[in-house]
Amino acid sequence: QVQLVESGGGLVQAGGSLRLSCAASGSIFSFNAMGWYRQAPGKQREWVASITSGGRINYAVSVKGRFTISGDNAKNTVYLQMNSLKPEDTAVYYCAAIAFGSSEYTYWGQGTQVTVSS
Q1: Distant-in-sequence, close-in-space partners of 36: CB < 8 Å, separation ≥ 6
Q2: What is the DSSP letter of 104?
Q3: What is the pLDDT of residue 67?
Q4: Per-residue pLDDT, 103
Q5: How far apart are the C-alpha atoms of 108 and 4, rounded to whole Å?
Q6: pLDDT at res. 14
Q7: Cβ proximity of 62 and 75 under 8 Å
Q8: DSSP state of 41
Q9: How many CB atoms neighbour CB 107 within 10 A?
Q10: Alpha-carbon distance 96 to 22, whole Å?
Q11: Regarding beta strands 46-52 and 31-39, do their DSSP bridges make them parallel or antiparallel, or are they unpaired?
């Protein structure tokens, strides 16, 4: 049973930084890719960033240049470093993983709240 556990959310002022962590129950290389999504109140969940097992990284336009996704296989953890945070970044952030053989995110964490005050 794969488990993804997020941590690192909290309340921060605009312009501040947070680092989210996603600890996987197994090696992150056992996944085709891992990513971060977010969902703000009253809005649909949106993709934020992803990293493949081969190291290919992509970002949503809204966070490019401010957020950085990275992985540490020794710790089975994927990170999302968030800098220059804006109030519109306020959301519940979810970690997700794509299993090999699948093209969709198969596993999801429980989410961690990020609140950016103006």
Answers
A1: 20, 22, 47, 48, 49, 50, 69, 78, 80, 93, 94, 95, 96
A2: S
A3: 98
A4: 86
A5: 6
A6: 98
A7: no
A8: T
A9: 18
A10: 9
A11: antiparallel
Distance between CA atoms of 99 and 104, rounded to whole angstroms? 8
59's CB contacts (< 8 A; 6+ apart) are 48, 49, 67, 69
Given this model, what pLDDT does residue 77 score?
A: 92
Strand partners, 40: none
| 6 SS3 class | strand
Q: Helix/strand/coil (H, E, C) string of 52-82?
A: ECCCCEEECCCCCCCEEEEEEHHHCEEEEEE
Which pair of structure tokens corresponds to residue 112?
């961690």
What's the token pair of residue 110? 């429980």
Select from 100, 69, 68 the least CA-distant residue to 84: 68
The predicted pLDDT at position 26 comes to: 74
Interacting residues of 108 by C-beta distance below 8 A, sequence separation 6+: 4, 94, 95, 96
pLDDT tens digits, the chain, 118 residues: what are they? 789 999 999 999 999 999 999 999 877 678 899 999 999 999 999 999 999 988 999 999 999 999 999 999 888 899 999 999 999 999 999 999 998 888 899 999 999 999 999 9
